[in-house]
């Protein structure tokens, strides 16, 4: 797909100073608004045109995002102090603008063509400011424009193609004054997304069908503010919302309305700004607050989770706004002098010490000293679809990975106060730790009690292996409706002790470094929710979604009484050559090295082998 995409951070375009790190929208999404209702089936798009959806199906979902990138700074010669690149399509055409929006420094839109070497002016006729925010593969662009360049200019969305400009404003009687309407992305079916601000300044996401001139709201259950920033040809929508607690988090909404929240571990803010047909999400997160706050770009996939993206010239001040199906990224960074520069990042670079020599090393970096910064993702992860059949049975379709290879798990639909409501036969992972199959309940049942969830346990039967560990909850779905209708739900990892006590949310990060002169791998881990005690850790061949053999064993990591591993480092010596990038992963297990395998010949995984956290390298 195109790169539907556009970033957006809370700040008005008129005061878009470099320090505020504004991205490719000028709304005020961080301000809370009236509660938004849950996504409804009626709010789901029906993509029926022959172009985009077929193209989307030809682009398989990305298993893991690229590890490293080659970065390039691209600034319009008319203004080398403030440029932002907002979207990129599959032909490499880029949408962007220059000018901070401050008085006397208006936003001026452009397209970048011919390998990001040729700037083509794109400004709405009679506008004072224009920001080109997104574009598709069919030569259509979207964005917003204003007739003023002052502290509160207001703006109107637009769709443009071949010089024909159509203004777009969500139909409502509760507009901000002046009105704020912005379109931020458009897919190859002509479906655009954006947001408007109400009279209190709160943001509301929407879709706009350019062929039918039709609007639909984009709502996120429980959110108080919603901004839709990107849409792909599968009808998936990315964006960000503000929770009741005032926390900004990203979201990815499937075409059936099911929504996954995206929050970078340890961040104070996460925004999803761009989305490809390969289901790769890009955006920005913030760590720290006030003068110490830093912003980092990210790429995210369902199997591999988050990976940080920092332009080498703007570490701690990078934002990623757009991505295409090749994984090319666009965005911006702020240099030490406070200037904002357009950024293009293409997969294939390496994080390396430039003074090191060439040769072979981890991640295909040759014999250079390399460092990889990884986000550890809770395991297992995936989706589950639950349906009640006409004969009263319940059918469950699971598409998930990160289980113990070949391990069986007790499966049921539970209600907290009633225990198991509906049982299934034990569900077994394949030899790579994945479950991709459909299962039917062993008996017929009526409607579900309120609050029911589909649940997988660590063991296959109550008390199997003569261990209470088998009863631990391994993963669960979102709360199911009384009569499930086949809506997809996220299957979320859960970590509890043998007595059922919640051990905390699984999350973490790792840094993996390679020293070719010393033939040494160094792994530093920070993690939470893993439970007190020792935890085995390995570097394996394969990926988190397709587990392979152990390559390097690490000494156990030790969590404190609160289940936290804090800045612990382990080393592996004698590493003379390492697998190529994308062919290995780091895994942290529930048990220690003495517990995760039995004494059989050959040894087999025990229940405590369970992967807790994983990251692809």
Question: Given the C-alpha coordinates, what overall shape results?
Answer: globular
The structural domain count equals: 3
What would the CATH topology of the largest domain be? Neuraminidase
What is the percent of helical residues?
under 10%
Mean pLDDT: 83
Going by CATH, the homologous superfamily of the largest domain would be TolB, C-terminal domain
Task: Supply database-style keywords.
single chain, 617 residues, mainly beta, Neuraminidase, Immunoglobulin-like, 3 domains, 8-stranded antiparallel sheet, 1 helix, 45% strand, disordered N terminus
Plain-language structure description:
This protein starts with 51 loop residues before the first helix and ends with a strand. It is mainly β and 617 residues long. 1% of the residues lie in helices and 45% in strands.
What's the helix and strand layout?
Elements: H1 52-57, E1 69-74, E2 83-88, E3 94-98, E4 108-113, E5 118-121, E6 129-135, E7 140-146, E8 156-161, E9 164-168, E10 181-186, E11 191-197, E12 203-209, E13 214-218, E14 225-231, E15 237-242, E16 248-253, E17 259-262, E18 269-275, E19 281-287, E20 294-301, E21 305-309, E22 318-323, E23 329-334, E24 340-347, E25 370-378, E26 381-388, E27 394-401, E28 408-409, E29 411-415, E30 419-423, E31 427-428, E32 434-440, E33 453-457, E34 473-476, E35 485-493, E36 507-515, E37 520-528, E38 533-543, E39 546-559, E40 565-573, E41 584-589, E42 611-616
Antiparallel strand pairs: 1-24, 2-3, 3-4, 4-5, 6-7, 7-8, 8-9, 10-11, 11-12, 12-13, 14-15, 15-16, 16-17, 18-19, 19-20, 20-21, 22-23, 23-24, 25-36, 25-42, 26-27, 26-35, 27-32, 28-31, 29-30, 29-33, 33-34, 34-35, 36-37, 37-40, 38-39, 38-41, 41-42
């Amino acid at each position: 797909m195109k790169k539907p995409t556009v970033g957006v951070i809370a700040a008005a375009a008129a005061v878009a100073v470099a320090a505020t790190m504004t991205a490719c929208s000028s709304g005020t999404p961080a301000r809370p608004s009236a509660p938004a209702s849950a996504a409804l089936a009626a709010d789901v798009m029906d993509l029926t045109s022959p172009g985009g959806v077929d193209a989307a199906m030809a682009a398989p979902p990305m298993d893991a995002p690229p590890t490293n990138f080659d970065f390039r700074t691209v600034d319009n010669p008319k203004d080398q102090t403030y440029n932002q690149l907002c979207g990129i399509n599959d032909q490499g055409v880029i949408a962007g603008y220059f000018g901070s929006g401050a008085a006397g420094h208006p936003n001026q839109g452009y397209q970048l063509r011919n390998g990001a070497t040729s700037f083509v002016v794109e400004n709405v006729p009679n506008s004072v400011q224009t920001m080109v925010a997104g574009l598709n593969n069919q030569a259509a662009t979207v964005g917003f424009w204003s007739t003023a360049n002052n502290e509160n200019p207001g703006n109107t969305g637009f769709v443009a193609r071949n010089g024909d400009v159509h203004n777009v404003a969500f139909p409502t009687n509760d507009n901000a004054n002046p009105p704020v309407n912005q379109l931020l992305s458009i897919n190859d079916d002509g479906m655009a997304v954006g947001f408007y601000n109400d009279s209190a300044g709160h943001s509301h996401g929407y879709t706009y069908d350019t062929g039918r001139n039709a609007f639909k709201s984009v709502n996120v259950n429980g959110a108080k503010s919603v901004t839709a920033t990107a849409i792909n040809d599968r009808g998936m929508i990315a964006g960000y919302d503000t929770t009741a607690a005032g926390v900004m988090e990203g979201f990815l909404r499937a075409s059936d309305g099911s929504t996954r929240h995206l929050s970078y571990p340890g961040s104070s803010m996460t925004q999803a700004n761009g989305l490809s047909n390969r289901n790769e999400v890009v955006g920005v997160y913030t760590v720290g607050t006030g003068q110490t706050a830093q912003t980092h770009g990210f790429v995210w996939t369902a199997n591999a989770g988050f990976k940080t993206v920092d332009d080498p010239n703007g570490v701690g001040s990078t934002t990623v706004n757009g991505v295409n199906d090749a994984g090319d990224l666009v965005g911006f960074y702020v240099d030490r002098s406070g200037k904002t520069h357009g950024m293009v990042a293409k997969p294939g670079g390496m994080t390396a010490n430039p003074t090191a020599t060439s040769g072979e090393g981890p991640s295909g970096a040759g014999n250079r000293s390399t460092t990889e910064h990884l986000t550890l993702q809770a395991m297992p992860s995936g989706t589950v679809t639950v349906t009640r059949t006409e004969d009263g049975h319940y059918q469950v379709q699971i598409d998930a990975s990160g289980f113990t290879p070949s391990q069986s798990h007790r499966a049921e639909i539970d209600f907290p106060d009633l225990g198991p409501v509906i049982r299934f036969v034990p569900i077994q992972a394949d030899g790579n730790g994945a479950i991709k199959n459909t299962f039917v309940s062993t008996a017929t049942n009526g409607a579900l009690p309120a609050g029911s969830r589909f649940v997988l346990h660590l063991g296959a039967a109550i008390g199997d292996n003569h261990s209470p560990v088998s009863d631990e909850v391994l993963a669960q779905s979102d709360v199911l409706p009384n009569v499930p209708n086949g809506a997809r739900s996220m299957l979320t990892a859960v970590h509890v002790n043998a007595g059922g006590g919640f051990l905390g949310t699984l999350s973490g990060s790792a840094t993996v470094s390679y020293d070719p002169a010393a033939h040494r791998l160094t792994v530093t881990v920070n993690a939470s929710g893993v439970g007190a005690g020792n935890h085995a850790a390995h570097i394996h061949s394969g990926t988190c979604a397709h587990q392979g053999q152990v390559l390097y064993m690490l000494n156990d990591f030790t969590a404190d009484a609160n289940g936290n591993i804090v800045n612990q480092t382990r080393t592996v010596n004698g590493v003379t050559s390492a697998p190529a990038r994308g062919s290995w992963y780091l895994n942290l297990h529930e048990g220690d090295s003495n517990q995760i395998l039995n004494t059989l010949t050959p040894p087999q995984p025990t229940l405590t082998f369970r992967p807790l956290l994983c990251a692809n390298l």
